[in-house]
Each structure stands twice: as structure tokens, then as C-alpha cells.
UniProtKB/TrEMBL annotation:
InterPro entries: CK1_Ser-Thr_kinase, DUF7477, Kinase-like_dom_sf. Gene3D superfamilies: Transferase(Phosphotransferase) domain 1 (1.10.510.10). Transmembrane segments: none annotated. The lineage of its organism: Eukaryota, Viridiplantae, Streptophyta, Embryophyta, Tracheophyta. Pfam families: DUF7477. Residues 131-399 form the DUF7477 domain. This is DUF7477 domain-containing protein. Belongs to the protein kinase superfamily. CK1 Ser/Thr protein kinase family. Casein kinase I subfamily. It comes from the Eukaryota.
Amino acid sequence: MLSMTSDLIFFRGTVRYASVHAHLGRIGSRRDDLESLAYTLVFLLRGRLPWQGYQGENKGFLVCKKKMCTSPESLCSFCPQPFKEFVEYVVNLKFDEEPNYAKCISLFDSIVGPNPDIRPINTDGAQKLIHQVGQKRGRISLEGETDEQPKKKIRMGMPATQWISVYNARRPMKQRYHYNVADSRLVQHIDKGNEDGLFISCISSCANLWALIMDAGTGFSSQVYELSPHFLHKEWIMDQWDRNYYITALAGANNGSSLVVMSKGTLYTQQSYKVSDTFPFKWINKKWRDGFYVTSMATAGNKWAIVMSRNAGFSEQVVELDFLYPSEGVHKRWDSGYRITAVAATWDQTALILSVPRRKPTDETQETLRTSAFPSQHVKEKWSKNLYLASVCYGRTVS
Ligand SMILES: *[C@@H]1O[C@H](CO)[C@@H](O)[C@H](O)[C@H]1NC(C)=O
């Protein structure tokens, strides 16, 4: 449960040479070793790296951000050409991709000259490691792949913001959505929904306007909400806690106002929240140890609000925090029984909470979409396949 974040908190290795994936708390693979080697070589050659000099609590984040937006060309602008090619090759390796060591070595032939006495590289150890982590791969072949061009996955460029929407398979139910809702129109939508037997299941904000999902499948018996100019309004939340309401959805607008929805009829027994300028990994880690799980999350500008509850119905939980939508991580987690249970994004980062439910759902299907406009047409198509909106957020997803 703690594996995803322990690397981030108890960061092992040197920040200066760490791979981007190591910064993001991913499980290390040989790709990461090669990326560190590339940074080390460039450092030895040039005497410094572009991400040196950051200080303070946010250092790791700033270094990681700089690494992600430094192109191989600019990193290696004063290095011989093979270094640039090496950096390009290693930063584009996939998690379980077999590094082509022979190719890496041959890149440097032009500057060190081919050495006929060079010993063949023994990759037996590496191969054992692969089998231990359960990857099914064929035998390592150093021949035959040498002509393959490295895949181009561009890390730089203008950030783009999108809607991320998450759909779960459910028995047919009534669901309704509203988007681009101004503050003044919230009441009428919510009142109408309540009249029709719907409660708010999730909310989000884009450009200081609200997106609102209401449905008949929440299991809540009663619901209250507050629109507040604060992120978040502590007194109101504490009053509702006293009345046995728990936070079940929240959203923050860019201008710092928030919409908090609290419901009766959840299984939660205790709840706690934190508002923070950086993603509060340490706090989450501590709460996990106390039996709390993240149940809602929102951002306002670059601020995060995380809600954690006891008796949340999960047996395990991880956080995927990335500078872009972490599809590689999500697919790996889906394969091992996790489902996305909360999403939030700032202009810089996207956070996904993935949890293993205590009670396995009869249909585990979960799908995600990233769209530049609110996915109204897609939602309707999903309904026809009994897939219902479960989480939605707006923020940075690609770079
Ligand atoms: C945030 O923006 C909305 C829409 O422009 C406006 O109605 C609201 O008063 C603003 N809130 C704050 C706290 O500035």
C-alpha cells in the first residue's frame, strides 16, 4: 500500500541524477538506471546539470519539472552528438522495455572507436530480475533489434489542459450532468435533481464554473452543500460533521472558492481533510497508517484539498501523481485490481487515487477519457453501455 509513496518520501538516490520516473515514485526499472547514467555522463562532461541550484521543501518537484521540460538537445547542446542520442534513447524507454545495450554502446563508437576486445555484455542478471517481477518476456536478444529506431515521445511543449472523466460499469440508473454552471444557477439544478430523487455524486470546476453529476445510485439518505469563497470553509464542515454528514464530493475554482457536498448514509466513521500548497504525500502516508483512505480530492489554482475517511470500503490505495496523465501507471494498476476512485489536477500536475475495493464489484469495467471540452456526447454513449460517470476533473493532462 505504501510502496508508491515511500520512494517519494524517503527518496533514495541523488536528486540530481534521479530519473523522472523515480521522482514520481514509480517502481524502478533498468530504464531508470540508464537515465541516471545519462545524467551522470552529461554532468561529468559539462560540469553541471540544468536542474542544479533548487532549494527548499519543493526541491524534488522543481528538479523533476525541470528534467521533464529539458529537451535532449538543450541538455546535450555542448556534448558530442552520441550523448544526445543516448539521452533521447533512454528517456523514451518504456517501463518493461528491454534496453538495447549493444545499441547504446555502438552509439559511442564514433568517439571512442570500436574495440574488438570488448567483452560481450552479460545480461543474465537483468533477465532474472525481469522474471522475479513477473514480466512475461521472451529471451533477451541483442541481435535483431539493433535497427529499431527509438520511439519519439516528446516530453516538452506547451502544457495542455483537458477534462479527465472516469466511468464505472453499474446497473442501469438515472444519471444527470450539468456543466458550465455559474454560482447563481447551482441551486436550481441541485433542487431539481433532489426533487427527482438524485443526489450529487461528483463535482468539478473549470474556469470558475461548476460541473455537477447527480445520480440515483449514491446510496445517500440526505445531502447538504455549501458554496464558499474559501478553500475550504472549516466551520461549516465541522458543523456538518457534528450532524453526522461526511464530505462526499468537493471542487475548487481557480479563484479559490469551493463547493463542498456532505452526505448522510455513507459507511464512513471518521473524516479528516488537509489543504496544502503541494501535494500532501506525508500527511496521506500518515493517515493511511491510521486506517484512513482518500475519498475525495480537489484543487483550487495550485492548492490541493484531500479528504480521507475511515471505513472507506477499500483494502489498498495508491497515488499516481504526474505532470501528465499517467496512462502507463493506470493500466498497470487496473491489471492488479485497482480502480480510479478520485481525480484532481492543477495546471502542473494530475493526481489519481487508485483503490482496491473491499467488495469486488460484479462488473469491474472502468474507462477513462481525456477531452478538451466537457464530454457530454461521450457520457451519453457510455450510458448506453451501462457505464456511468464516477469522477471528473479539469487540468493538465499532456505536455
Ligand atoms: C469566483 O468566480 C465566480 C465566477 O466568475 C464568481 O461568481 C465568484 O464570486 C468568484 N469568487 C471569488 C471568491 O472570487
